[in-house]
């Protein structure tokens, strides 16, 4: 046998290479795959999320073709195909997994899909895989974390000695609020302290910032989380601690705080001036109505009778100020202002300033539920509410009874 020359060997090798390189490419290596993505929307999850175990979540899938028409959608949890009973398609029923893509959707689809999450408390990967008719596959993937304790809650903490119910203080003071809070599906984020609807300036708090940003170790739960607050100057205000979580949801706990000298509630009586001697006036500091209308301790007096009328109709049934006291009708007060809600003396002063002045310092005919505000010569203020009016037909024993706040 003759040995082949080196030239012939090289020639044969090149020929073999040329023949092998002229074969057709594998279509699977060069075909353009489909595309798939999550769309945003109300009630739609488009990114990793927390849900309750077994709760449903909804996604909106958009898919487009590559070089081939779309064929099917398969949904996996941690690489395991999930049971079709956990899936609901908005556009068709019953669901299958994989779900075949038909009709015009083979050229592109927009599907809304609801999936029942896993029931264990763990983080799982959900894979929405689109396959085309050439066998090419593309996935959209998100993590769903099931959180066992899903109740976002805020409550007053009772162990710190802070206000947990509405309170009245005599003057400007510092008081504290304290809360407990637990996160739900989303981590706790901030705590903000409000007076009415205004964020309180941090200079009135013992915090460095308001809102306060919760740090690691506080985002799952906080206990006995307190703040010291410098109160407003006078009147009633609502103070709230508002906890916001990472999703923007909020819960709160709060109290109403009233600043001012507290009122005292007593019961008074005023008798017909024309009755037995020694009556017709009332000392509003004590409620004593068994004094003469000319007694120097009386702030109000009854106007007596009209002697031209018969005894069963002669009571004038009007009240006037006595000894330099001014009486006003509580008719011009803000809507919702109630006698029962008056907590501090400053509210009585404010009510007097807004009430209706009376001609000759004498009321109209007095009836049950009428209200009056009185300022005596010593600068003391009284708010009275008529609770009963007793009229007699055979004598002048008529009288009013009333509640007094002073």
Description:
With 406 residues, this protein is mostly beta strands. The chain has three domains: 32-146, Immunoglobulin-like (Sandwich), CATH 2.60.40.10; 153-259, Immunoglobulins (Immunoglobulin-like), CATH 2.60.40.10; 265-405, no CATH class. The protein contains three helices and 29 strands. Strands 2, 4, 5, 7, 9 and 10 form a six-stranded mixed sheet that branches. Strands 12, 14, 15, 16, 18 and 19 form a six-stranded mixed sheet that branches. The protein starts with 5 loop residues before the first helix and ends with a strand. Mean pLDDT is 90; it is low at 1-25.
What's this model, at a glance?
By secondary structure, the chain is mainly beta. Helix content is 7%, strand content 42%.
Sequence-ordered SSE layout with sheet pairings:
Layout: H1 6-21, H2 27-30, E1 35-39, E2 49-51, E3 56-64, E4 70-77, E5 80-81, E6 87-89, E7 99-100, E8 108-116, E9 123-132, E10 137-146, E11 153-156, E12 167-169, E13 174-182, E14 188-195, E15 198-199, E16 212-213, E17 221-230, E18 235-245, E19 250-259, E20 265-271, E21 280-283, E22 288-292, E23 300-302, E24 319-321, E25 326-329, H3 345-354, E26 356-357, E27 371-375, E28 381-390, E29 399-405
Parallel strand pairs: 2-10, 12-19
Antiparallel strand pairs: 1-3, 3-8, 4-5, 4-7, 4-9, 6-8, 9-10, 11-13, 13-17, 14-15, 14-16, 14-18, 18-19, 20-29, 21-22, 21-23, 23-24, 25-26, 25-27, 27-28, 28-29
């Amino acid at each position: 046998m003759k040995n082949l020359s080196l030239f012939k060997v090289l020639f044969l090798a090149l020929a073999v290479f040329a023949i092998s390189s002229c074969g057709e490419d594998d279509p699977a290596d060069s075909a353009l795959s489909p595309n798939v993505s999550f769309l945003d929307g109300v009630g739609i999850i488009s990114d990793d999320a927390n849900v309750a175990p077994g709760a449903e979540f909804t996604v909106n899938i958009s898919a487009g073709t590559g070089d081939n028409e779309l064929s099917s959608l398969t949904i996996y949890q941690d690489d395991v195909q999930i049971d079709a009973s956990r899936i609901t398609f908005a556009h068709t029923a019953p669901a299958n997994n994989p779900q075949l893509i038909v009709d015009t959707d083979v050229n592109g689809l927009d599907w809304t899909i609801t999936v029942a999450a896993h029931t264990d408390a763990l983080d799982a990967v959900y894979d929405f895989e689109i396959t085309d008719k050439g066998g090419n596959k593309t996935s959209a993937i998100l993590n769903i974390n099931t959180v066992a304790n899903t109740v976002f809650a805020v409550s007053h903490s009772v162990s710190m000695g802070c206000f947990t119910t509405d309170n009245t203080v005599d003057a400007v003071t510092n008081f504290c609020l304290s809360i407990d809070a637990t996160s739900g599906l989303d981590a706790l984020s901030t705590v903000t302290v409000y007076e009415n609807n205004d964020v309180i300036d941090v200079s009135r708090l013992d915090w460095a910032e308001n809102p306060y940003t919760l740090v690691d170790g506080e985002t799952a739960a906080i206990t006995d989380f307190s703040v010291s607050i410098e109160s407003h100057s006078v009147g009633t205000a609502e103070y709230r601690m508002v906890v916001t979580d990472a999703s923007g949801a909020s819960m709160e706990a709060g109290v109403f705080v009233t600043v001012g000298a507290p009122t005292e509630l007593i019961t008074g009586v005023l008798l017909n001036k024309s009755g037995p001697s020694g009556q017709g006036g009332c000392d509003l500091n004590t409620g004593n109505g068994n004094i003469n209308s000319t007694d120097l301790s009386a702030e109000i007096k009854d106007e007596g009778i009209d002697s031209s009328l018969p005894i069963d109709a002669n009571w004038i049934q009007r009240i006037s100020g006595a000894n330099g006291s001014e009486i006003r009708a509580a008719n011009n007060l803000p809507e919702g202002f109630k006698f029962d809600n008056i907590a501090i003396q400053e509210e009585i002063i404010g009510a007097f300033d807004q009430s209706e002045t009376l001609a000759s310092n004498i009321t109209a005919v007095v009836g049950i539920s009428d209200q009056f505000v009185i300022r005596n010569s010593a600068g003391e203020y009284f708010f009275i509410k008529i609770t009963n009016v007793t009229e007699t037909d055979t004598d002048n024993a008529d009288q009013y009874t009333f509640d007094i706040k002073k």
